Backbone:
């Protein structure tokens, strides 16, 4: 299923819409991967991935991660002045980092499970957001 | 369905075996003995960061190059996870080889690492190490294998965290945090054992009480931080000047005590005198200054001094130390009934 992103009235993607899109994608990723490796390890990997990308995309440092899951509330505050495409690039970078970590840990086992549910949607999001 | 029940049973017994293990090696063996019933693998590894130990439980026909690849891969994954590089040469490798495959399926001597599952051993947000399943076959593991391995990993991490806590509590109860020497509590326990052994068998035992002369002046002049550095330096001199079987402990403040099991009075005097000279000839760096320091020491010995308890032995060494101080310091005194005999440094 294609990501449910809608244009705002001006025909552009608002920051909130991009954040919602990635909030849903990350929630799916969390659900799939936590079933494979558990919440505690996944939370560690999320934190590690964020540390690697937050220098370039500081707003990602506001993602709140715990074993219970993640929250983007802090990011929403920080992203008021960030361009939607920049937000998209940041989250794309985060998902790439996670994917690299999953590969390092388990060859293709995790990414294989994620591909149909998450990665295909990231590619679709890239296509839609870049269209504007 | 039957297969899942069988696997869950194996998983349950693996977790039970891990939970009752008393040391890291036992954990690896407990897991290793059960894992062949869950996975097809060539090598199973556990890396424990605290002791830089890497245990491998692997098929007996594993070629050395394959083992090296597994080690390299585990260290690499751990370095990514822990964000710190671990020098391979500092790691102690322990390999346990077992027959995991029938003879006709022995590994090719040129086999290489084709697939692996490596997970961090994480507890309370700390990465304690990692565990890894490895195979010479491509795509050897699937999502269910990963789920099972993660359950085993969580249990292992919880037990390792428990070991870590236990070991730090044990350290606190045994060692003096400033000097790294044994603490007074441990000294009392050790002396009890050694003294009883000597009183029972007649084997000699000596006690040397040591005090740094005019140490208060060091603290008053340079401050406690520099004073602490002097204590640490003298502690390591003491530690390096005795035999392996001897015990060096911090008795309190700037006082130390040495238990010399099996040492006759003359031998203990030689050891004490050697230490006294060593300290006298050492230039201590305190802040930007260089200092000369000296030690006073008192010796008691069984059977030369007819004691019936460890307390008496301590009291006599303390009395001899007092005499060394009173006699002008920088001396080694042996307890004597009326006043301690003291040796003039030459």
Residues:
């Amino acid at each position: 299923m294609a990501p449910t992103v809608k244009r705002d009235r001006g025909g552009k993607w608002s920051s909130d819409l991009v954040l919602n899109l990635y909030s849903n994608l990350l929630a799916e990723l969390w659900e799939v991967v936590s079933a494979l490796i558990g919440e505690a390890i996944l939370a560690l990997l999320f934190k590690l991935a964020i540390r690697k990308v937050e220098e370039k995309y500081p707003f990602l440092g506001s993602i709140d991660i715990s074993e219970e899951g993640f929250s983007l509330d802090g990011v929403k505050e920080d992203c008021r002045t960030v361009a939607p495409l920049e937000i998209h690039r940041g989250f794309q970078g985060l998902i790439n980092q996670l994917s690299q970590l999953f590969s390092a840990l388990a060859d293709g086992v995790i990414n294989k499970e994620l591909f149909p549910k998450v990665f295909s949607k990231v590619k679709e999001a890239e296509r839609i957001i870049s269209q504007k | 369905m039957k297969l899942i029940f069988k696997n869950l049973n194996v998983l349950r017994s693996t977790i039970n075996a891990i939970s009752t293990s008393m040391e890291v090696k036992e954990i690896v063996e407990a897991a290793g003995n059960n894992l062949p019933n869950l996975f097809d693998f060539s090598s199973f590894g556990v890396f424990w960061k605290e002791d830089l130990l890497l245990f491998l439980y692997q098929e007996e026909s594993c070629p050395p190059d394959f083992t090296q690849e597994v080690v390299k891969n585990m260290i690499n994954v751990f370095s990514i996870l822990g964000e710190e590089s671990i020098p391979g040469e500092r790691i102690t490798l322990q390999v346990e080889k077992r027959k995991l495959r029938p003879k006709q399926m022995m590994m090719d001597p040129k086999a290489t690492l084709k697939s692996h599952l490596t997970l961090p051993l994480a507890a309370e947000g700390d990465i304690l190490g990692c565990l890894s399943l490895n195979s010479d076959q491509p795509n050897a593991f699937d999502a269910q294998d990963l789920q099972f391995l993660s359950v085993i990993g969580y249990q292992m991490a919880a037990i390792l965290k428990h070991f870590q806590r236990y070991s730090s509590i044990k350290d606190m109860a045994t060692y003096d945090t400033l000097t790294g020497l044994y603490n007074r509590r441990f000294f009392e326990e050790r002396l009890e054992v050694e003294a009883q052994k000597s009183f029972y068998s007649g084997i000699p035992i000596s006690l040397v009480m040591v005090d740094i002369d005019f140490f208060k002046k060091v603290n008053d002049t340079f401050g406690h931080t520099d004073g602490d550095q002097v204590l640490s330096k003298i502690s390591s001199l003491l530690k390096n000047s005795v035999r392996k079987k001897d015990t060096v402990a911090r008795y309190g403040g700037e006082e130390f005590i040495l238990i010399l099991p099996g040492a006759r009075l003359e031998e203990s005097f030689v050891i004490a005198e050697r230490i006294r000279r060593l300290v006298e000839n050492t230039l201590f760096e305190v802040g930007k200054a260089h200092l000369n320091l000296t030690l006073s020491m008192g010796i008691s010995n069984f059977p030369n001094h007819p004691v019936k308890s460890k307390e008496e032995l301590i009291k006599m060494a303390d009395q001899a130390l007092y005499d060394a101080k009173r006699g002008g310091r920088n001396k080694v005194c042996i307890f004597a009934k009326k006043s301690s005999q003291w040796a003039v440094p030459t």
Notes: Chain B touches chain A at residues 76-77, 80-81, 83, 115-120, 122-123, 125, 127, 139, 141-143, 145-147, 150-151, 153-154 (CB under 8 Å). The two ends of chain B are 86 Å apart (CA to CA).
